[in-house]
Design a protein that fits this description.
Pathway: Pyrimidine metabolism; UMP biosynthesis via de novo pathway; (S)-dihydroorotate from bicarbonate: step 3/3. The chain is of the alpha/beta class. The chain contains 14 helices and 18 strands. The two termini are about 20 Å apart. It binds N-carbamoyl-L-aspartate and zinc ion (2 copies).
Length: about 425
């Protein structure tokens, strides 16, 4: 039996000072005593002990692009970020769009330090109009379906996918993007695009497909989850859809909450991602959406790339930034310390809510449940240093003197075992 003593424990959505007893990977009791059967004592030193964080949107790049990230490095980075369960997107090479490839992916995922729940693609190779074998992939263990990286262009394809996914009580996570409106843009349409002379991405590339999908979701009843929303109109559409009883949820990334295209001063691709950083007006609407509950959760969209894929300016570099090692400290500093919300609410957005919405065995500290926990020193102040990252991807805009953060992950436990 293990004991975590002096825990400032987030239990039942309240902070309490207690000790935790862990036996066979599960939480056995929460107590003020120290039992004599304890074999190992971990001193949490009055730091916050939270349910392990849950990120439903990461890219671990294996198989196919292991120079960017591997399941090992990605999961080590996740543990370093306080995460114990992550949802891995299927835009790996090959896309796991049949049972054989999917089972191979699940096998590879055994290399992970954290729990990986695996998305399967909605359509073959993520880009075709032909649906993947949805029922078979669900049976093989797909926790949800997504073509992340690509919008589903054909409304009939989307409608059929929603019908079949809803029959399974599974989830459809959509990267909403109309390819024609996207028009090979690389940055948000606005003053920064004009100043830098770069091809721009219209907001309607996101919102027009979102509006369509919400109506299809209404018709089919599927749980429709919107990935990385980035615009004011997206928040408004989702607010209206929720009021109308449509089964929709959505995520926002820390970068869309903390940065806008006004922060892009030079042609630096560490600010290039899809969807792009939008305007200050959009950013403010996203923050309001988080505060009023329209936005359900924070997800990082951790998208590691190699150095020479990101040092070619906006036109030629890859889309995406890393996020799993910076997410909690950034959100804690800029949302909790700044007074916008309490830490209970942040943990809900980064653990309890995503687990609940995707039906994952995670997100709460409960007697009898697996001990997936993080110990976080909320008072430790520091700057992110690239040499501290465990991810292979160093493509983040959050290093440098502007980003002094508080909140350092000290230890992470999965099934009661220390993984960071
Ligand atoms: N977000 C990104 O800019 N890139 C993601 C794909 C995606 O999330 O759409 C990637 O896989 O690199
Ligand atoms: Zn995406
Ligand atoms: Zn993504």
């Amino acid at each position: 039996m293990k004991l975590i003593k002096n825990a400032n424990l987030l239990y039942d959505n309240k902070l309490i000072k207690k000790n935790l007893v862990i036996e066979n990977g599960k939480l056995k009791k929460i107590t003020s005593q120290i039992d004599n059967k304890i074999t190992e004592v971990i001193d949490a030193k009055n730091n916050l002990v939270t349910p392990g964080l849950v990120d439903v949107h990461v890219h671990f790049r294996e198989p196919g692009q292991v120079h960017k990230e591997t399941i090992k490095t990605g999961s080590e980075a996740a543990a370093h970020g306080g995460f114990t369960t992550v949802g891995a997107m299927p835009n790996v090479i090959p896309v796991p769009d049949n049972v054989e490839k999917f089972e191979h992916q699940v096998k590879l995922n055994e290399r992970s330090k954290v729990k990986i729940v695996q998305y399967a693609p909605v359509t073959l190779d993520e880009i075709s109009d032909q649906l993947s074998p949805i029922e078979k992939l669900s049976n093989a263990g797909a926790f949800a379906f997504s073509n992340d990286g690509h919008g589903i262009a054909n409304a009939k394809t989307m409608f059929d996918a929603m019908e079949r996914i809803s029959q399974l009580n599974s989830h459809l996570a959509a990267h909403v993007e109309d390819q024609n409106l996207f028009n090979k843009g690389v940055i948000n349409s606005g003053k920064t695009a004009t100043r830098l002379g770069l091809p721009a991405i219209q907001r309607v590339a996101e919102t027009s497909q979102l509006a369509r999908d919400l109506l299809l979701a209404k018709e089919t009843g599927v749980h429709y989850h919107v990935c990385h929303i980035s615009t004011k109109d997206s928040v408004e559409l989702i607010r209206i859809a929720k009021d109308a009883g449509i089964n929709v949820s959505c995520e926002v990334t820390p970068h869309h909450l903390l940065l806008s295209d006004e922060d892009i001063l030079t042609d630096d691709a560490n600010f290039k991602m899809n969807p792009p950083l939008r305007s200050e007006t959009d950013r403010e609407a996203l923050i309001a959406g988080v505060l009023d509950g329209t936005i359900d959760m924070i997800a990082t969209d951790h998208a590691p790339h190699a150095k020479d894929e990101k040092n070619k300016g906006f036109l030629k570099s890859a889309f995406g930034i890393t996020g799993i090692e910076t997410s909690f400290p950034l959100m804690y500093t800029l949302f909790v310390q700044s007074g916008l919300m309490n830490v209970e609410r942040l943990i809900s957005l980064m653990s309890t809510r995503p687990a609940k919405i995707f039906n994952l065995n995670a997100g709460t500290i409960e007697i009898g449940k697996t001990a997936d926990l993080s110990i976080i020193d909320l008072n430790d102040e520091y700057f992110f240093n690239k040499s501290d990252f465990l991810s292979k991807g160093l493509n983040t805009p959050f290093t440098g003197a502007d980003w002094k953060v508080s909140g350092r992950i000290k230890q992470t436990y999965v099934n009661g075992e220390k993984i960071y």
